[in-house]
Amino acid sequence: MIQKNDETDHGEKTRAMNETIGTNTDVSMESATASQPTSVPASQSSQAGNASTGTQEPFDDECVTPSEPEGKAQGKHIGAVVYFSSISNNTARFIESCGFPEEGINVYRIPLRPKEAPLQVREPYILIVPTYGGGDISKALLPQIRKFLNGHKNRSFIRGVISSGNRNFATAFCAAGDIIAEKCHVPFMYNFELLGTADDQCQVRDGVRNFFLNAQSSQAEHR
Ligand SMILES: Cc1cc2nc3c(=O)[nH]c(=O)nc-3n(C[C@H](O)[C@H](O)[C@H](O)COP(=O)(O)O)c2cc1C
């Protein structure tokens, strides 16, 4: 169940960790803002724009080789997380401390620099990204993240988003999560500040694991 703006247990942090896998509609990430969500109908999905070029050309990623995870799932593989972290590396350190591979979860990192090979993910994943923009919600999503999500195939596998930020940015705190949830039609599952706390790590690790386990159970029931 989606618990947007849940103020009971964990304030605004707890979002939808128990949400079953939802649908998502292809959308252009270009000009995405939280205050002005732009939903593109599925019928227009092939026209999704490429934010990296600013054109309306579909981003053709149908025939590319899938990327290898940075952290490979150990034991039974149940799902994946994709994350971005800038040079300050806060999100990378948070991801490391969650120990996803030990939970059977592949970990992929969106490249920092344009000359690095683009990330191509071909399995369901939860996206974990920091917010940028310095308080300007229209710039909250970094170009690297937009470029990744503008890949038609990449975007088709997103199942939820978790965002980090700094509370000093007030209304723009974790705005990247709101934008991605709105544009990709997936639950905004959780937010945390900077490196996160030990409690944040537990909530995210357990939440992501349970999300994928629940999804597997639901799939098994429908067979
Ligand atoms: C230039 C800059 C702009 C930022 N803008 C925002 C913002 O608008 N909202 C927010 O919640 N956090 C903002 N932050 C805080 C980052 O999201 C936070 O430091 C995050 O932990 C960075 O993660 P990373 O080190 O993995 O890149 C900003 C940080 C920087 C350096």
Helix content: 25-40%
Overall spatial form = globular
- Measured on Cα atoms, how large is the radius of gyration? 16 Å
Strand fraction equals: 5-15%
CATH superfamily caption of the domain at 66-221:
Flavodoxin domain
Give the distance, in angstroms, between the N- and C-terminal Cα atoms.
23 Å
Report on this model:
By secondary structure, this protein is α/β, with parallel strands linked by helices. It has a domain at 66-221: 3-Layer(aba) Sandwich (Rossmann fold), CATH 3.40.50. Helix content is 25%, strand content 13%. It contains 5 helices and 5 strands. It has helices at residues 90-98, 143-150, 152-156, 175-184, 198-221, and strands at 79-83, 105-109, 125-130, 158-165, 188-193. A 5-stranded parallel beta sheet has the order 2-1-3-4-5, with helices on both faces. Helix 1 (90-98) crosses helix 5 (198-221). The longest helix has 24 residues, at 198-221. It is globular and about 45 Å long. Mean pLDDT is 80; it is low at 1-11, 14-27 and 30-58. It binds flavin mononucleotide (FMN). Flavin mononucleotide (FMN) is lined by residues 85-86, 88-92, 130-135, 140, 164-166, 169, 172-175, 194.
